[in-house]
Design a protein that fits this description.
The protein is mainly alpha-helical and 168 residues long. The chain is built from nine helices and no strands. Helix 2 packs across helix 3, helix 4 crosses helix 8 and helix 7 crosses helix 9.
Amino acid sequence: MMRSNIENLLITCITEHKENVYRLAYSYVKNAEDALDIIQESIQKAFESLDKLKNPASMKSWFYRIVVNTSLDFLRKQKRIQVADEETLEFYGQASDDVYQNIDLEIAMDDLPPIYRSVIVLRYFEDLKIDEIAKVLNENLSTIKTRLYQGLRMLRVKMDDEMMQEVQ
């Protein structure tokens, strides 16, 4: 396939999945400007390494992997905790009438180690299948299934603890 055709496929992929890619980056950095920087850097990396893409049919998972890796690199460089601002909390609150439930979930998600958070975000927020997540994260299928199960269990324990504290 000619490079210009592959570039056009990449542009189409980025355009079609821009909201999902933004949400994915945001789920790591919890800051709108940083998420946009990560997306910009990811797009640049994707264009620079297009010749390394072996199968154009797997472009979406390949690009998601670039976004995940760029997000993790960013976090390694930052080594700091981001505090959500009012605007962010309002943005998430608009999705549902039960704002507190969403904030509890978001706080619980933030407390998860990144390897579990990545799998849960890709599965439930980006609606990827287990095998697609394995490609994005460059892990085998059983590892992803285990991390998903453990991550959900950790979330459940965390949410149950918070619910119990509210009751008392």
